[in-house]
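Task: sequence design from structure.
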């Protein structure tokens, strides 16, 4: 079934936008089901969609996944830090000639990075992934992962690194790939590759290892489950999480090889097998981007929330006459851990951070500086404007940290606790607060568990009425969060205190059931003026303090 929605924007003073919907059925597809929901909006659609997802057993919740494997709980509120290419080896198109080799982190350095962000930056929860650990390096010589490459330290050093990372309480994850095969792999065999109807091999992208060839889905399972692949990797390194790249990134595929012909439905079925078998071996499993059918068979997606600082690849909503709404979160927020992917420029990231605040998702850090970066003196900071606001450290906790660490700390202190507060709830209601749709409100959960998030995507300051902060003034890309045990804001005014240049604070209940019954608060200050009021009391908090409140 191939659904398509086309937006038409005619020119002229009396023109109006038209939406054209087409559904194409091919091969085994025979019917399309329409479910009238009555008068409503996108909230009505999301609620109706969730009911259907539950009927189809797609909406398997995080609570159920935690009951299945306790390590899933470590991903709630966890920032995603990925050392993308420990070993970066670039081969020519034919995978016959080495063009460059660079060690960005040894395995010992990788463990030291994790220990640094845990102890010095005080990041409490993290999904810490190593890419480029395999023999040959990142995107090279697949599907033959072992031994771990000697350039970074080999098997023994990787064993030690995984142990050190997991001793921090972090979820250690190894990055692998069974969809791409390269001609210089020990296991290279055209019999594994997808074929066109004329028998020719189907190629994939030109990556670090050269030109990749697409392995047929049943052969992906066969290769991954060989004793020298996933079983041996688990025996050697024992990571709690495993990531198999591209499995969910590409759409359902076809193969015309007479020895393993498959259609799109069979492709999905085999990828479900790969997911389930990987999950059984390692405990937790994730892949790139994300697919709805993969929800019951995986624990996290990497690339669904955003890509390289954009909402999704090169999507430009304005050119579609569209505004992005977090529809996935309205249906499945409580079912899956989700991240973005690829690197982005923190100096241009305010909208991207604001998008993550609205969707209540932790951020991903896929452009980590090389080696033990914090020991090197960083260059002069770039001049920052509004889009660089979350890199600010003036008067704040991260004032003396490396710029990477400062941005990591600021965003984690917002997004980690926010995800913890909302992870088990659906985005129940989303609305545009202002007529220009610049100010947006997302409400997660209902009743006493409710968390309200308001974000200003506009270019002007916006006043917002809140329970605890009174009339809060949000600058461009500013926000306010109120939940029973967590409050956060980037604002120019909060609870009667003016912050002309904007300030970032978070408050967490340290003692007591919730803010109504709080006896102690943990206050974190990211940047801006250090003064803050809670009810009628006031404090000066340059970095972080636990203060006594109430009686």
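Answer:
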């Amino acid at each position: 079934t191939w659904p398509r929605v086309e937006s038409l924007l005619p020119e002229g003073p009396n023109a109006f936008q038209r939406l054209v919907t087409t559904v194409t059925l091919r091969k085994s597809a025979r019917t399309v089901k329409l479910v009238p929901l009555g008068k409503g909006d996108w909230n009505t659609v999301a609620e109706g969609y969730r009911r259907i997802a539950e009927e189809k057993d797609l909406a398997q919740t995080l609570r159920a996944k935690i009951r299945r494997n306790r390590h899933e709980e470590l991903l709630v509120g966890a920032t995603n830090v990925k050392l993308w290419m420990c070993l970066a080896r670039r081969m020519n198109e034919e995978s016959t000639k080495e063009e460059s080799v660079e060690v960005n982190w040894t395995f010992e350095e990788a463990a030291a990075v994790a220990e640094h962000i845990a102890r010095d930056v005080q990041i409490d929860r993290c999904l810490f992934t190593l890419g480029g650990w395999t023999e040959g390096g990142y995107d090279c010589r697949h599907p033959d992962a072992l031994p771990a490459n000697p350039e970074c330290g080999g098997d023994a050093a990787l064993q030690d690194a995984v142990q050190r990372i997991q001793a921090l309480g972090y979820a250690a994850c190894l990055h692998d790939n069974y969809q791409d095969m390269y001609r210089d792999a020990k296991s290279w065999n055209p019999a594994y590759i997808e074929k066109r109807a004329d028998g020719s091999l189907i190629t994939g992208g030109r990556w670090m290892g050269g030109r990749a060839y697409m392995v047929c889905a049943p052969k992906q399972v066969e290769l991954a489950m060989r004793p020298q692949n996933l079983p041996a990797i688990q025996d050697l390194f024992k990571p709690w999480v495993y990531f198999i790249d591209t499995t969910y990134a590409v759409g359902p595929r076809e193969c015309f090889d007479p020895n393993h012909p498959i259609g799109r439905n069979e492709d999905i079925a085999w990828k479900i097998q790969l997911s389930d078998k990987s999950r059984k071996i390692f405990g937790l499993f994730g892949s790139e981007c994300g697919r709805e059918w993969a929800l019951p068979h995986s624990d996290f997606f990497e690339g669904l929330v955003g890509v390289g600082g954009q909402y999704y690849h090169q999507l430009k909503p304005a050119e579609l006459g569209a505004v992005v709404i977090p529809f996935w979160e309205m249906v499945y927020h409580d079912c899956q851990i989700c991240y973005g992917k690829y690197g982005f420029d923190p100096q241009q990231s305010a909208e991207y951070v604001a998008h993550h605040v609205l969707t209540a998702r932790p951020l991903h850090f896929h452009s980590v500086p090389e080696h033990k970066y914090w020991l090197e003196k960083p260059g002069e900071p770039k001049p920052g404007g509004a889009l660089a606001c979350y890199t600010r450290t003036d008067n704040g906790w991260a004032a003396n940290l490396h710029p990477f660490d400062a941005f990591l700390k600021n965003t984690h202190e917002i997004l980690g606790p926010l995800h913890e507060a909302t992870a088990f709830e659906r985005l129940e209601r989303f609305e545009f607060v202002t007529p220009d749709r610049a100010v947006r409100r997302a409400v997660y959960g209902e009743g006493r568990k409710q968390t309200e998030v308001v974000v200003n995507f506009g270019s002007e300051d916006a006043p917002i009425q809140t329970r605890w902060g009174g009339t809060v003034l949000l600058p461009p890309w500013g926000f306010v969060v109120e939940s029973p045990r967590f409050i956060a804001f980037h604002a120019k005014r909060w609870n009667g205190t003016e912050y002309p240049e904007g300030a970032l604070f978070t408050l967490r209940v340290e003692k007591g059931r919730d803010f109504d019954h709080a006896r102690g608060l943990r206050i974190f200050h990211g940047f801006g003026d250090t003064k803050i009021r809670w009810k009628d009391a006031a404090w000066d908090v340059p970095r972080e303090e636990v203060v006594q409140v109430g009686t």
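The radius of gyration is 24 Å.
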